[in-house]
Sequence to fold (746 residues):
Amino acid sequence: MTESTTDSRSLTRVAIDPLTRVEGHGKVTLLLDENQVVQQARLHIVEFRGFERFIQGRPYWELPMVVQRLCGICPVSHHLAAGKAIDMLVGAEQLPPTAEKTRRLLHFAQVLQSHALHFFHLSSPDLLFGFSSKASERNIVGLLEKHPETALKGVKLRKFGQQLIETITGKRVHGSLVVPGGINKALKPAEINVYAKQMDEIIQWSTEALELAQGLYQADRKHADFGAIGSPTLSLCGNNGNFELYHGDLRVKDIDGTILLDHISNRDYLAHIEEEVKSWSYMKFPFLKRLGKDRGWYRVGPLARVLNCQQMDTPLAERARLELVNQCYPDQHQSVLLYHWARMIELLHCAESIQQVLKDSELTGGELVAPHGDRNPECYGIIEAPRGTLIHHYKVNDQDLVEEANLIVSTTSNNQAMNEAIRSVCRQYIDGHGVSEGLLNHIEVAVRAFDPCLSCATHALGKMPLSVEILSVAGHETQVLERTSQGEIQQRFYPC
Amino acid sequence: MSQVLTIDGKDLAFDSGDTLFDVAQAQGIYIPHLCHHPDYPPQGNCKLCTVDVDGQSKCACTTQAETGMSVQTDSTTLTEYRRALTELLFSEGNHHCPGCERSGNCQLQATAYAQGMTYSSFKLLNPQRQIDASHPSVLLDRDRCILCGLCVRASAQEGKHIFTIAGRGSDSTLAVNSDSGLLADTNLSAEDRATQVCPVGALMVKQQGFRIPIGQRIYDQGTIDDLGNRRPQYHSPKSKTARIAGDSDD
Ligand code: SF4
Ligand code: FES
Fold:
């Protein structure tokens, strides 16, 4: 059930606002009925649509460098998605093996470092210390103190990914690799060696990270209900239905795991996905046309990818995938916390894949750029970013300038899913109890499970600046609960 | 070689007709500059080559050397002047280095680094001048043009006379001499010196993008003070070997 209410007159609205405007910020409003049951949850996110206008009128070859500034956490995904769109523009989608393998390697490194950051720095403290533990403990510093070995491996995994990115692109963040139809440089054998030597250890640490994520999830039966929602799942898959992060066609599985749509090529995405605008949110709500606005919202990201594919082509990750899938189906609702488990399966897959690619003799020494062919003025680049499917779509005029751009980032795709997860969490934790500090933490845990491109989601847990307002039916404030970015709480009550 | 002046305390002989810039360059003394290239007559547009001549500020590229002159090419005050001039150039255009393909190969950016510029203390004007993408292989992004006039001189020397600086004061822009005012209607080619001489990312051979990897760009190798004013050589857009860092003007 989505936003179920049609009659809001007898309902109370609760707003959870950030107090300060951080780079990107979220605001949650909850609508409660007379019995304090949550009827609606709305997550408002400021989205940087400005970028689509910013690149209008710019030459297309600038795109991979300009759009990667969209995000400080996963710039590589934007760099590659724009690069893929431009390959299509210049009629050079079939890259030489060295170019394709280098790009894939970069992408694996990016997903690995992003997942390590997300799990170890942002989420594992919640799971290890419990959602209601002291905010001062629930961060990477607390983790380093209490579980030094685990934390250190997390930090090192991330560093490995970042270093590999730096070697490939020349910079740790916002480097350059893609050019139309290829890449600007290949790795040298000596550079490949440096990383190849580390792979057994990286795979070992990734395996331990997966065991930790899976163990933490399974340690508490309540986790299975936390923010449990059901929806179709969307992701790229390879031709054979295999797990894919870099290139493939879109597949959608329905709530029960049956395949709803398959082999949707990038140029057909608009035939299947529509974006709805709602007056109360800056961010659009994409939905699957076939299911309509109400039932067509879907999830993207690690859980969606792991559930959607038929198999993963690395042995350790594949074994782990089967265990997760057995846990998920036939149940039609999945806890948001399963995202962490799925995320660590992907981390392991990336580590195994990096080892494979580094051993591949075609990684270096071949052609870097494919010959350009027929031009496609309307071009698409779809990639699986760490947070989920990322769609870049451009129209380029015959003078080489971008005329139109449409980007659907993974956070946008997960928009409704995040609302639903918040509603599910609130239903569990709010009924009859008003709004408490604990609720803020639980909402954060739910939002963070999606790993949205929200800079406020990267605040340490318990430090996300929020304020909660409960409005009476007549629109008066009855309660305000505020938390500053220092984690200080203030509460005020107003008699009706 | 009978005439002598001093530059930075050194007695140097020169020929009549030499500018201060010529004398310094012959001795390997680097004077920051953006609008000057030894192949073309000096114009004194950017003022970056300002030096101290017997207590007075003068452009090294346009000032004739004279016997007995005492020239100072470097001082805290001169660096401050040059930094302010560089900041002004940044504030007058749209120089978004992170998204610019010329980054790392750009003389304006390299000069800013060399002057220790980290931000512009002048208001950014964020101009929106017309971009000319009409030519199949050359792009003119006027928002990045610093009006150095090098393309104007180079094109004149090539006998094509394609560019001119039009307008006055803050309304000055780089204009194209064709009926439509567009590059498509000129006989400019990607290989022309006029196209290649631009010290910034204003006149660019199309479809090059970021083919020079980070780490291999000109000013990844050293500062402009050490390496001089260099520019990459561009090949036509279709060519496979994109471009190699090459041409140096000093
Ligand atoms: S286009 Fe380049 S070379 Fe021509 S005036 Fe502008 S900055 Fe100078
Ligand atoms: S180099 Fe002398 S004024 Fe520009």
Summary: The mean pLDDT of chain B is 92.
